[in-house]
Amino acid sequence: MRLRFKTALVIIFIMIAGCVTLGIGSLFYVKVFKDDAVVIVDGDITINYLNGNEFYLTDTGSLDFSVTNNGSKEAYYYIQLSDIKGNVNDVTYEITSSTNDVDLSSSLKSEIVSNSLVIDGNKTENYTISFKSENNETYSGKIVVGTRQEESVNFADLIKNNNEVKENPGTAIGSSSVSAEGLIKSTDDLGDAYYFRGLVTNNYVSFADRIWRIVKINGDGSVKVVLDNVIDVLTKYYDEDKTFSNSTIKSALDNWYNLNLSNYGDYIANYKFCNDLKFDDVTGNYASYNRIMKDKNAMFACLSENVNSKIGLLTADEVMLAGGSTDANTNYYLYNEAIKTDYYTMSSAKISTSYYPFIVRIDGAISDATEGTLLRSARPVINIVANVKTSGDGTINNPYQFDLK
């Protein structure tokens, strides 16, 4: 009898201890996924959340999902984060794909991460979303992938339809272009690219209540546009760190984006902006200085650091390909008489006691003579997502506009 009583006591004690241990553990650490896979079929599209689509995390974690197109025609879909809860001030996410070039990252919040992704017929795209909290905060949320209807006319296709694509520019790169040379085929790091050069008047875009000018169709089908003016504050390029990611001018651009473009983020691509800091030890110059000032051999390929961002600046190469040179030029599309201050580019000119980025002067010339700690203007550049429904012909009276529904 005593033995049975003691055995019962031991069992009760173990059960209580286990419950207490679980309770205490839950106070200090949470790392839970709803591990059961969730599979959703929407027409020809199958979405497989391999670890479920809800997360409850402290510190770090990741989950995997895939999108399969079982049909023969391409299909459109979006990726969204929703129901985000907890202290997420220091939480970031990154979405990468093992099957394509998607690389999306930002602060964690409820938002459409990418509004217009496309998948070919009979294909599967595999994704991983990773979370990180610098201060080990607890947070939760849900990831949602949804289908969209086929876009009727996307931006890049409409631009090419409205222009005669030329294989070569009409004037030598490095010399000022003062006529409407049009849309010219080239290449960049992502594939075939198309850029406007000279005094073109059919590359206007109306977006976010502002006028922009098309610089190029990128190799991935997104479209790079530059504001037709500069932002309303002067800024240094840098204080201590000359890298664009940590620069003073990047902070100014981010602030401007948050005030003016954050509501349009679904249509602005995360893009790899080229911060050309490659140094040529043989010549003792930056590689971009040799290209622009000596060789007059501008190009879209990036030889140095790519900065993944939704906003950036022009490179000196892009200015030169648009028709600029080291001489004054008031007859190409980047010149705007309303711009009354020089503005910075992302390209490196030279370094002595200080760092000198290339600038574009108010007369349209490319210059290497401005120290980066001086106050100058910033002219924002963004990239419009590839598959956005577009209308217009690019003229000032009928600029390209987007269906933002």
Topology summary:
Elements: H1 2-28, E1 31-33, E2 38-42, E3 45-49, E4 54-58, E5 60-69, E6 75-86, E7 91-97, E8 103-107, E9 111-119, E10 123-133, E11 138-148, H2 155-161, E12 165-166, E13 180-188, E14 191-198, E15 204-207, E16 210-217, E17 223-227, H3 248-260, E18 271-275, E19 279-280, E20 285-286, H4 287-295, E21 305-309, H5 316-322, E22 343-351, E23 355-360, E24 366-367, E25 381-384, E26 390-391, E27 401-402
Parallel strand pairs: 12-13
Antiparallel strand pairs: 1-4, 2-3, 3-5, 4-11, 5-10, 6-9, 6-11, 7-8, 7-10, 13-14, 14-16, 15-16, 16-17, 17-25, 18-21, 19-20, 22-23, 23-24, 26-27
List keywords for this structure.
405 residues; alpha+beta; six-stranded antiparallel beta sheet; 16% helix
Seen as an oligomer or otherwise, the chain set is single chain
The coarse overall form would be globular
Helical/strand content category = alpha+beta
Number of domains: 2
What is the β-strand count?
Answer: 27
Largest β-sheet summary: 7 strands, mixed
How far the N terminus sits from the C terminus, by CA atoms, comes to 77 Å
- Number of DSSP helices? 5
- What percent of the residues sit in helical stretches (DSSP H or I)? 10-25%
Question: What's the quick description here?
Answer:
The protein is an alpha+beta fold and 405 residues long. The protein has 2 domains: 31-148, Immunoglobulin-like (Sandwich), CATH 2.60.40.1180; 158-402, no CATH class. It has helices spanning 2-28, 155-161, 248-260, 287-295, 316-322; strands at 31-33, 38-42, 45-49, 54-58, 60-69, 75-86, 91-97, 103-107, 111-119, 123-133, 138-148, 165-166, 180-188, 191-198, 204-207, 210-217, 223-227, 271-275, 279-280, 285-286, 305-309, 343-351, 355-360, 366-367, 381-384, 390-391, 401-402.
